[in-house]
Amino acid sequence: MPIRILLVDDHPMVLKGLSLFLGTREEMEIVGEANNGAEALEKVKQLRPDVVLMDLMMPVMDGVEATRRIKEIHPDVKVVVLTSFSDQDHVLPAIRAGAEGYQLKEIEAEELVATIRAAHQGKTQLHPQAAGHLVQQFTSESTGFREQDGLEVLTPREQEVLRLITEGMSNKEIAANLVIAEKTVKTHVSGILNKLDLQDRTQAAIHAMKQGWFT
What we know:
Rossmann fold, 13% strand, alpha/beta, phosphoprotein, Arc Repressor Mutant, subunit A, six-stranded parallel sheet
């Protein structure tokens, strides 16, 4: 079955471009479009897409509030933020609202496809700038104490993988960085999530940042 996608953006040209590109992918289907967060919420109720590609700065209701409401009502619907803003004032609220992915509009086309696929599978991909701002935010909130409790349950390799996740790397990028197979990275990620009792990569990254493990 194709991944059913709802596009949300207040710029018609952006919607048209995304629709033309993603609509040509055999594994993806554009089921609807919305011009603001309020309209997106109604479309999600009507269409029940698999993934919502969400802009942030929109009239009536912004993308963060729309994401929060969508996740409250339909937690199975995945939200990927696609925006021009990478600063922590936008990144952190979006992640806290429940977004599974955060990418900038400058992203390469195939990276966007990969992010949508990952979100549909319950995985998370963050743009490196967005991940960097998350690290800065949690570092600034930290007391400076490097908490080790919990980290020792991970193997040295799993700790390396977790560190790279917090830097916003995808599985493919981690594999290249550590010179291992992407399948091996996936195995390490699963091990990390199981040992730390977490559900996805975003939770793992945020947990590591809060603990100050890699600051």
